């Protein structure tokens, strides 16, 4: 009987452990098939728990961080009362959100209304499963990582459109249509930059994209290809900001114009899920930027053996999360620094500037590969 | 039941274990969502059920080791086609206020037609010998991205380099045309008016 298996050193450990534990059970329960099924289920459970832990665990941290960064940009202190420097504040907020009553507005399409937050969460969770957090820490090491990421991005648009329409509210519908148009447009340049990364690294697997940057800090894709890598990184930063609907590209939920956009009518847990999806998207996009441009879990070696030895001692996960949080900090600084463009300016920016530049970048990258590397 | 129809022994045991169970589960979900797609009165809801049906198709491709086909299914149908369908539905007004309903004679005709179609399909499918063994998954990586790319870009007799290039030039053209269309175009007489001011 064929049982799918999770290929991973941790998976191997569980596969070895299960028969040893099973030896203590009564003889009627001992069979290789049962052992392999149990091992597979335990491995799958570990994978699911790991993805949920990274995603849901990082949300409160990010909310706290966002408040602090916002406050310091605006010369305030931010939350200070609960716990040391207000650290327990987010926990209290999350608890409050979870205990709120959940109800739909009258005249809303109930099925769609409660389905939309679930659909929005599909994309970020799948992307998180693909990202290599360390040499052996990747849930799904699939050969087609980048096409899969581009494919599941469509679910985000869908969830937002459904949520906005089913709220039975003009502001929500307007916000949903705006954000749908924006995300569809920016998805093109987002996909094209990932295509550029695939082109220069010669692989669609995120693990081999990371391993292609092994060496010193100058082997990361930002620096390895002179100028082009940096341009691609900046373009990725812009288009992923727009893809996530974050300020300055947050016309979808512009408070002053749309009272919150597509999630105006949501409250309690469904609203928390929209909020969660937004922050998970922040984590996954930062992780994607880290993997594709900043060397993933590789330490920033500088070519001096004495220093590199110490840098290599730090586990890859720590480097990975350090880079991810640096990227998140960049996204937050951009959010609280720049002003929001108008809808038509936003669309112009994508179709008249980003897309042509992306096409040129692809051509230049192809020329670079053909001539130099 | 029907003359000329002899039902062969279907493989109801699960020789492939997890894969078989996954297939039956996905097939069940696909059938339910497909029925919901046509049975639900609200068109937006039927679009959503259509998406789940497409996801089921993609998972079936994955079970057959056709990874690229699965991803193309998700990318093109869910990320593209259905999103545009949903957009179009959202922009039409009076959605779901007066639901479309067929008269009884027409309903009966449709039912008879559907049953006839199913009977013909089963009659054509049953004589196929290889069905008894179940669908055969392609060998590992045969339909993966790399093999697919090598076959698409092959120069030899089995390669598809020329159609691939033609299609990619067509797609590039549409992208560039969309950029050109998006550029602001000011009519000449409007320009003159502006200058006169």
Any chance you could write out the topology, listing elements then pairs?
The complex is a heterodimer of chains A (373) and B (197).
Chain A: H1 9-22, H2 32-73, H3 89-98, H4 110-130, H5 145-152, H6 154-166, H7 170-201, H8 206-211, H9 221-224, H10 228-243, H11 255-258, H12 268-293, H13 305-313, H14 316-337, H15 343-371
Chain B: H1 18-39, H2 43-63, H3 67-91, H4 104-125, H5 145-152, H6 161-182, H7 188-196
Helix pairs in contact in B: 1-2, 2-3
User: From the structure provided, what is the oligomeric state, counting identical versus distinct chains?
Assistant: heterodimer
Number of helices of chain A: 15
Beta content of chain B comes to: under 5%
Shape summary of chain A: globular
Largest interface: A-B, 42 and 37 residues
Large-scale geometry of chain B: extended
Radius of gyration of chain A: 23 Å
Determine the fraction of residues in helical runs of chain B and give it as a percent range: 55-70%
Structure class of chain A: mainly alpha
Beta strands of chain A, count: 0
What's the short story on this structure?
Chain A is mainly α.
Task: Explain the overall architecture.
The complex is a heterodimer of chains A (373) and B (197). By secondary structure, chain A is mainly α. Chain A is built from 15 helices and no strands. The longest helix of chain A is centred in the first third of the chain and has 42 residues. Chain A is globular and about 65 Å long. The model of chain A has no long low-confidence stretch (mean pLDDT 84). With 197 residues, chain B is mostly helical. Chain B has a domain of 44 residues. The N terminus of chain B is likely disordered. Classes of the chains: A mainly alpha (373), B mainly alpha (197). The interface between A and B is large, with 42 and 37 residues.
